[in-house]
């Protein structure tokens, strides 16, 4: 488990937006071609109160200039995802303890701009053609590599950040709650009773 740095997110943003941008910045520092990463989001104040030793180990003791912003979320990286298991199957196995306020995930994917999506052959849009479609996208000249950071809270709040490899800069990160609805829904389902 890794605690992420607090720097880099705008203070005016919601705690969830700040957490997503912190995770995006952390993963950006690791470079591209990274595996998917999963994070628990915990309420920083609750963590300090209920698990002071862990909070201290994560550098969240509340002292000094690096103290988190009040009402903040602390992203805690989880163990590596199992290799060879489809993401949707893996997410279906997750159950979070009550202390976890939300979760986040980063994944890298190839995508096409809307202008190129119209040229997808009909045969590749059929069920069961996912592998061929992925190969077609990978070979398309207009493909773009994107890193998606998606987060959800138990209360239903959602946030996403998208970073294109060709515009790999913190000032070029697009944020919004509905940018990656499929992944957002899958993460929200990990909190379903």
TrEMBL record:
Top-level taxon in the UniProt lineage: Bacteria
Disordered, as annotated region: 57-81
The name this protein goes by in its record: PPA1309 family protein
Originating species: Streptomyces macrosporus
Lineage start: Bacteria, Bacillati, Actinomycetota, Actinomycetes, Kitasatosporales
């Amino acid at each position: 488990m890794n605690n992420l740095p607090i720097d880099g997110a705008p203070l005016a943003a919601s705690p969830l937006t700040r957490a997503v941008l912190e995770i995006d910045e952390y993963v950006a520092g690791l470079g591209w071609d990274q595996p998917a990463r999963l994070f628990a989001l915990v309420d920083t104040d609750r963590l300090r109160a209920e698990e002071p030793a862990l909070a201290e180990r994560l550098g969240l003791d509340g002292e000094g200039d690096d103290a988190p912003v009040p009402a903040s979320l602390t992203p805690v990286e989880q163990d590596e995802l199992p290799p060879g298991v489809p993401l949707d199957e893996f997410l279906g196995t997750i159950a979070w303890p009550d202390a976890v306020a939300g979760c986040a995930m980063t994944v890298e994917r190839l995508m096409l701009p809307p202008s190129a999506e119209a040229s997808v052959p009909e045969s590749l849009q059929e069920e069961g053609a996912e592998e061929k479609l992925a190969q077609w996208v990978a070979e398309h000249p207009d493909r773009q590599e994107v890193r998606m950071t998606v987060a959800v809270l138990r209360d239903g709040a959602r946030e996403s950040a998208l970073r294109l490899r060709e515009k790999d800069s913190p000032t070029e990160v697009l944020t919004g709650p509905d940018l990656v609805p499929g992944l957002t829904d899958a993460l929200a389902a990990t909190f379903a009773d």
